[in-house]
Design goal:
The chain is mainly α and 168 residues long. The protein has one domain: Ferritin, core subunit, four-helix bundle (Ferritin, Up-down Bundle), CATH 1.20.1260. The longest helix has 31 residues. The two termini are 19 Å apart.
Length: 168
């Protein structure tokens, strides 16, 4: 069994993961509305991955014989100005998620819950990968995004992203 403190922070992280899924789904809709269907596809795949991340936490909590406390998911908020600005917001969002996961790691260490501390390492690795991927997209958009043909090629590249269920 995990402590109430760790249970609560993990439940909070579930909310953050599902909020992320809502955020990416909203961004997918935005990209579809402006005709960037590859960007929309990328964001929709990311939304599915965030749901997976939430469910992995969900299953971990239940597996540790603790309780799930789901809370309301806030409406996503982001600026709809340009693809590069949306991806900069994605990057900032992912950094905030990394910070939240760092907090889970620190608090699980403080509670001497080494099982949770070990479990959360998977999330830390995921966050490094996500921040790196988004940073690379931003670099491409900043270098070439104002060129319509380059934006088309980036859109086509992002449309090739394949979903594979996140597995812990």
């Amino acid at each position: 069994m995990i402590s109430d403190k760790i249970r609560d922070i993990l439940n909070g992280q579930i909310n953050k993961e599902f909020y992320s899924a809502y955020l990416y789904l909203s961004m997918s809709a935005y990209f579809s509305e402006i005709g960037l269907y590859g960007f929309a596809h990328w964001a929709k795949v990311q939304s599915k991955e965030e749901i997976d991340h939430g469910l992995i936490l969900y299953n971990y909590i239940l597996g540790r014989k603790s309780q799930i406390h789901l809370t309301q998911i806030s409406a996503p908020v982001f600026e709809l100005n340009s693809p590069v600005e949306v991806f900069e917001q994605i990057y900032n969002h992912e950094r905030s998620i990394t910070s939240a996961i760092d907090s889970v790691a620190n608090q699980s260490e403080g509670e001497c819950d080494l099982a949770t501390r070990n479990f959360i390492d998977w999330y830390l690795k995921e966050q490094v990968e996500e921040e790196t991927e988004v940073s690379r997209i931003i670099s491409k958009l900043k270098a070439f995004g104002s060129e319509k043909s380059a934006l088309y090629l980036i859109d086509r590249e992002l449309g090739k992203r394949e979903y594979s269920a996140a597995v812990y």
